[in-house]
Write a structure and sequence with these properties.
- The protein has about 400 residues and is of the alpha/beta class.
- It folds into two domains: about 170 residues, Rossmann fold (3-Layer(aba) Sandwich); about 200 residues, CoaB-like (Rossmann fold, 3-Layer(aba) Sandwich).
- It is built from 14 helices and 22 strands.
- It has an eight-stranded mixed sheet, sandwiched between helices. It has a six-stranded parallel sheet with strand order 3-2-1-4-5-6, with helices on both faces. A two-stranded antiparallel sheet has the order 7-8.
- A hairpin with a 5-residue loop joins strand 7 and strand 8.
- The longest helix has 17 residues.
- The radius of gyration is 24 Å and the shape is globular.
- The relative contact order is 0.09.
Amino acid sequence: MLNDKRILLIITGGIAAYKSLELIRAIKKQGGSVSTILTKAAKQFVTPLSVATLAGEKAFDDLFDLNDETEIGHIELSRAADLIVVAPATADIIAKMANGMADDLATTTLLATDKPVMIAPAMNVRMWEHVATQRNVLQLHNDGIMVVGPDEGEMACGEYGPGRMAEPEAIIAAIIEALSPVDAEKPLQGKRVLITAGPTHEPIDPVRYIANRSSGRQGYALAIAAERLGAKVILISGPVNLDIPPGIEVLPVETASEMLQYAKDELPVDIAIFAAAVADWKVKNSADEKLKKQKGQDSMQMQLVQNPDILQTMAKLKTNRPQLVVGFAAETENLLENAKAKLLKKGCDMIIANDVSHETGIMGGNDNQVHIITADKVESWPKMSKQAVADRLMEYLAAMLGHGVNI
């Protein structure tokens, strides 16, 4: 609930601005109050009258309004709210925020505030994926700005991909979480959780490598879920194209050997979840220079050797073994049989098994369907989003840890 909480909603110029009207309704339904700022471009999509009517108070839009600025209005707006939310947050305002610009009421207010800020990005998929936007979002992460979304889906322009503004329900949930008391009881408060995510890249030569189709989404979702439950999260990530989750320590790696060493260096931890899709093999002697085709050469041979088994190594530690060690089994056939065998071989406490055959569309996608396998049972969960899987799994593990259960 948002009783007695005041939200300053900044609406910028994108087609998703229509969702801001529903967001105002949702905030008030939760007991909060809303003041609003519209940029010049926002007024091309929603009117100050409609925004003011829903909010129940004046919508601000002019930095140089004589009536408002005699009271230093932008300072008052920036300090009176408990939280500032920019929704939709266009590529333009994200760039301005990342670079400390203040050329209108919205950006001046954002620069003058001493309150927490949250953005809900919304833009064309190419704009979202552009290196400049990703650089700006990373800067905002580092500045402590909270980011909700964007979602993946069909755009107003007809293209498909990440860039849709998060739905009002998701933004409201994030607002409530952001304004929850910092001392609220969380089941993983004071616990350390280690998570690996994404693929590994095993070099063939300086420009080629052995890898797989892992997107890293499930591991990153687990990190977000663990942090929400109060854990100190260490995310060891192979090369992925994902945003760094706010409040989470990310250690980037390339190879399986690096991932294992980083995992050992972070011990002790309470829970270790090995969600990364680690390459089983690496080239024995990778080339220092780019391999080139030779005249008359029709084939090339490479000698492969096994990579270190990260899950098995960590599960069988004699000292500093995490209380709960969880592995993932991505299979294309005989899913449960192979996962059960992996549980025994690796010595871990739990295996999360999923079918990644081509027909499922799981590998690299946004959804997952998992089976929770322990020494004495198999629990099958329905297909759901990877974040929903992560939230449910972390609550499951937190409950076991809280009860001192060793599976």
